[in-house]
């Protein structure tokens, strides 16, 4: 068994309980009945316009059909398009775009392998596994009537699998995961208070409204899970970076104490957290640019009234809570890593406890 786990049995119990609880809640909720398979969709090549509002399209099976077009832009001859058949009538849905996503994904994988090697590829694969778990496990159970909050612990399981898959079973991963779970629990408690104090309904989002009406999903619970996913994503990068910085500093043997190791690593953490704050704010601003434009152009409603509306309030709450959790995880992950990785009088040239290649507990 890992030496760190032997010295800290409470950590083993905590992580084990969290993962077991997450797995239990993820698997106990019923799955909805499988929907009927969709048919009538296909792809073809646009040839030329026919009558007004119609187009001639050659399907992949060679058949030439006249399709009603509702596309926002006029396709070019030879352009690939999506065709739907409804009651014997063909409808041109729009350009065929999804192959571009495959090309972009291939470019991302190539760049990741070239720049970061296999560890970066494992990170991409871990992200894919997280999305697969979300798509195949969590979302089907939500549509089957499960409460979103009851599935929240399973996010801890998904996160743990991702962290250990990408970074290995070592002190760095243990410290990062423990910090993530602690800060996520604190963020969840604060978010619960904000939802109650703000009397949020979760219905300001159109998708949540449809989900509640169609599948009985509680819109507030769905909002909470979405915010926690955002917070976990923001914290994950910072926590791993901090524990990695502590590991590197501890290996050099220059820190005189755990406090000194913590102080040195926090110098890195302060810069990283500051940069990530700017990144998150800009990402949110870019995603909400049309909304910000409308807010800026609104001359009749005071800004504080617009901020008081549930739609904008929930978005800003999600952003601020993610930022808060991300900032908090810096000292927490640094403190845990410094406590577990510091070795008094460690010499990087002679002490095997500072070398992951020779220390089984550090692998």
What does this structure look like?
With 363 residues, this protein is an alpha+beta fold. It has 2 domains: 3-30 and 118-362, Multidrug efflux transporter AcrB transmembrane fold (Up-down Bundle), CATH 1.20.1640; 42-96, OB fold (Dihydrolipoamide Acetyltransferase, E2P) (Beta Barrel), CATH 2.40.50. 64% of the residues lie in helices and 10% in strands. It is built from 11 helices and 5 strands. It has helices at 3-7, 9-28, 98-143, 153-167, 171-197, 206-215, 219-252, 258-287, 289-297, 303-308, 310-341; strands at residues 41-49, 54-59, 64-69, 80-86, 89-95. The protein has a 5-stranded mixed β-barrel with strand order 1-2-3-5-4. It is globular, with a radius of gyration of 26 Å. Mean pLDDT is 82; it is low at 348-363.
**Helices and strands: which structural class?**
alpha+beta
Average of pLDDT: 82
Instruction: Compute the number of helices.
Output: 11
Largest beta sheet: strand ordering: 1-2-3-5-4
State the end-to-end distance: 12 Å
Portion of residues within helices:
55-70%
Strand proportion, as a percent range, falls in 5-15%
Just name the CATH architecture of the largest domain: Up-down Bundle
Helix-strand pattern: HHEEEEEHHHHHHHHH
Query: What is the tally of beta strands?
Result: 5
Q: What general outline do the C-alpha atoms trace?
A: globular
Number of domains: 2
Q: What is the CATH fold-level name of the largest domain?
A: Multidrug efflux transporter AcrB transmembrane fold
Question: What's the arrangement of secondary structure elements?
Answer:
Elements: H1 3-7, H2 9-28, E1 41-49, E2 54-59, E3 64-69, E4 80-86, E5 89-95, H3 98-143, H4 153-167, H5 171-197, H6 206-215, H7 219-252, H8 258-287, H9 289-297, H10 303-308, H11 310-341
Parallel strand pairs: 3-5
Antiparallel strand pairs: 1-2, 1-4, 2-3, 4-5
Helix pairs in contact: 2-4, 3-4, 4-5, 5-7, 5-11, 7-8, 7-11, 8-11
């Amino acid at each position: 068994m890992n030496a760190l786990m032997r010295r800290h049995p409470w950590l083993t119990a905590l992580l084990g309980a969290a993962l077991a609880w997450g797995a239990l809640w993820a698997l106990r909720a019923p799955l909805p009945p499988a929907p009927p398979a969709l048919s009538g969709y296909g792809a073809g090549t646009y040839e030329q316009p026919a009558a007004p509002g119609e187009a001639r399209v050659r399907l992949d099976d060679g058949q030439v059909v006249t399709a009603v077009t509702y596309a926002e832009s006029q396709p070019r001859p030879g352009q690939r398009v999506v065709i739907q058949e409804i009651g014997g009538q063909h409808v041109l849905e729009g350009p065929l775009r999804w192959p571009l996503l495959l090309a972009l994904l291939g470019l991302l994988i190539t760049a990741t392998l070239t720049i970061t090697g296999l560890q970066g590829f494992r990170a991409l694969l871990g992200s894919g596994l997280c999305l697969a778990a979300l798509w195949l496990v969590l979302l089907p159970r939500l549509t089957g009537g499960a409460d979103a909050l009851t599935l929240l612990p399973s996010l801890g399981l998904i996160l743990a699998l991702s962290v250990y898959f990408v970074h290995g079973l070592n002190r760095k991963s243990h410290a990062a995961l423990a910090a993530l779970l602690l800060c996520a629990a604190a963020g969840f408690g604060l978010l619960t208070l904000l939802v109650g104090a703000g009397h949020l309904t979760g219905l300001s989002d159109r998708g949540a409204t449809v989900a509640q009406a169609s599948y009985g999903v509680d819109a507030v619970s769905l909002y909470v899970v979405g915010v926690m996913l955002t917070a976990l994503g923001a914290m994950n990068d910072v926590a791993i970076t901090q524990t990695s910085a502590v590991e590197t500093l501890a290996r050099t043997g220059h820190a005189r104490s755990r406090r000194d190791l913590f102080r040195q690593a926090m110098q890195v953490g302060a810069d990283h957290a500051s940069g990530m704050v700017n990144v998150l704010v800009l990402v949110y601003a870019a995603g909400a640019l049309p909304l910000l434009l409308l807010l800026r152009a609104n001359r009749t409603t005071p800004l504080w009234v617009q901020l008081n509306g549930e739609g904008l309030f929930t978005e800003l709450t999600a952003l601020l809570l993610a930022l808060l959790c991300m900032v908090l995880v810096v000292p927490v992950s640094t403190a845990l890593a410094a406590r577990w990785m510091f070795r008094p009088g460690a010499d990087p040239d002679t002490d095997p406890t500072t070398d992951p290649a020779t220390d089984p507990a550090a692998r």
